[in-house]
Amino acid sequence: xxxxxxxxxxxxxxxxxxxxxxxxxxxxxxxxxxxxxxxxxxxxxxxxxxxxxxxxxxxxxxxxxxxxxxxxxxxxxxxxxxxxxxxxxxxxxxxx
Length: 96
Hints:
Helices cover 31% and strands 27% of the residues.
């Protein structure tokens, strides 16, 4: 199941250290792309980074291996830049 979480620099440091995130998970209302986007945007509005993750059960802790992507607003345009899970260090550098 795809979930979205708002995250900050401290959260990303925890992921890098192998720790799990237990932040509030936002679930799309359906599998429809518009509902997925709404959940993603809500997470992005609540934190510096929106984390998209695949978990087995709602509210499962999210480890780096669950992360599908990071989404970051690099400017005030409202557009989110996509980063793969393997780009965690690059995303952390953007927030530093």
